[in-house]
Write a structure and sequence with these properties.
Length: about 160
């Protein structure tokens, strides 16, 4: 096969397997309650290996009865986070999600629109009067808008 044909094949393979856009990743905070029988379950390994989820353990406790509790943040694609949480629940570990949401202080917003361009989820737009609109159901809490605001009116409520 000529080098030109090889190049064409390589190009096709790449376009058939697009990498996930890292900007679409989001984070969830969860509390995991391990029964004694599941204390050895390698949760962080499973999350990384099977679901491409990075985990950050914020607190870990083992009680005298040898059950365990982990508070951790998971970072991954929304669909992978949902599947991973279900997988952990199915293994007998109790999972409680800690709600996080984005807060816009509209009294201080100058409606510059800078946050709109970084919101790939489409949760931000300007209305007919050029005022910022936050469509919260579309928000994946990716936090991209937080550093984009020149007047620091976007915060994350943990
Ligand atoms: S509003 Fe902010 S946190 Fe929510 S999806 Fe858009 S950029 Fe991400
Ligand atoms: S970047 Fe900040 S000031 Fe500008 S529209 Fe968004 S929230 Fe408002």
């Amino acid at each position: 096969m000529s080098p030109g044909k090889n190049k064409k094949k390589e190009k096709q393979t790449i376009s058939e397997s697009p990498l996930p856009n890292p900007a679409l990743r989001t984070r969830k905070r969860v509390v995991l309650d391990f029964p004694p029988s599941q204390l050895q379950t390698p949760v962080t390994y499973i999350l990384a290996k099977e679901y491409d989820i990075a985990s950050n353990i914020l607190r870990a406790e083992i009680t005298p009865e040898e059950s365990g509790k982990l508070v951790m943040e998971m970072d991954g694609l929304p669909e992978n986070l949902e599947k991973a949480i279900q997988r952990i629940k199915d293994s007998g570990i109790e999972v409680t999600e800690i709600a996080r949401k984005v807060i816009f202080d509209m009294d201080k917003c100058i409606h510059c629109g800078a946050c709109i361009s970084v919101c790939l989820a489409g949760a931000l737009k300007l209305d007919h009067d050029f005022h910022l609109q936050f469509v919260e159901p579309k928000c994946t809490v990716c936090e991209m808008c937080v550093p984009s605001c020149p007047v620091d009116v976007v915060t994350i409520d943990l």
